[in-house]
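hiii so um. not sure if this is the right channel but i have a protein structure encoded as tokens and i wanna go backwards to a sequence. like what aa goes where. can anyone help
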């Protein structure tokens, strides 16, 4: 496991923010740990955050990735995927992601994916336009330059010419129909669909117990990848 998790609430002036994230590292503990400590700080320091949160998040992701690349000697040669969710006054949810950790919201019992799984096969053209390639060997998943199984990530200096860190950003309104949000690394999603995950916890009122239940079910289904999970109930 090279995952780091954030689940926190922060008061900023008259505003309450819920800060939730999962950072799934590869070949590195230091980069996901750095993200856990600094990414939200970088986002909230953006002057446009309160007026244009999507723009602020995109810029903070870029700035953070640039810093990680510049400090590769100290932070290591690996990288990390990320899925982040900022809940603003329990009214608006802003989700961003790079990689294959996923955000799923459930409204009226229906699961809706808010993030995008950045798979190399889906971004082959842009990877090749940058001079890279996508391998697809029998028995293996597609990989950027035969190495990385995601097309976007923080860090990964050796692959960065062919790898993007541009996040997908989505904004969701929280209303009376909103039941819960699931953030999880790919170890859950490899063995459960979005709807299966939502159905599995719909009657579990305690968010921590719900997250544990999803992780346990992923293990029971034979998942061998990193399994981290955050559940936010509304």
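sure thing!! here u go:
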């Amino acid at each position: 496991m090279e995952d780091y998790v954030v689940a926190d609430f922060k008061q900023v002036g008259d505003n309450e923010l819920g800060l939730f994230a999962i950072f799934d590292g590869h070949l590195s503990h230091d980069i996901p740990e750095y993200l856990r400590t600094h990414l939200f700080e970088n986002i909230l320091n953006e002057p446009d955050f309160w007026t244009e949160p999507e723009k602020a998040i995109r810029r903070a992701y870029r700035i953070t990735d640039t810093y990680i690349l510049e400090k590769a000697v100290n932070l290591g040669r690996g990288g990390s995927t990320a899925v982040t969710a900022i809940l603003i006054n329990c009214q608006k949810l802003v989700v961003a992601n790079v990689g294959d950790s996923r955000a799923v919201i459930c409204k009226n019992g229906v699961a809706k994916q808010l993030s995008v799984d950045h798979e190399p096969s889906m971004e082959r053209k842009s990877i090749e336009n940058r001079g890279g390639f996508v391998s697809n060997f029998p028995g293996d998943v597609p990989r950027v330059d035969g190495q990385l199984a995601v097309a976007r990530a923080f860090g990964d200096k050796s692959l960065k010419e062919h790898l993007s860190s541009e996040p997908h950003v989505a904004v969701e309104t929280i209303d009376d129909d909103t039941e819960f949000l699931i953030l999880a690394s790919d170890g859950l999603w490899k063995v459960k669909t979005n709807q299966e995950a939502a159905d599995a916890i719909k009657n579990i009122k305690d968010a921590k117990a719900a997250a544990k239940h999803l992780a346990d079910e992923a293990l029971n289904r034979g998942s061998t990848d990193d399994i981290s999970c955050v559940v936010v109930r509304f």
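oh and Residues 3-233 form a domain with the Phosphatase 2c; domain 1 fold (CATH 3.60.40.10).
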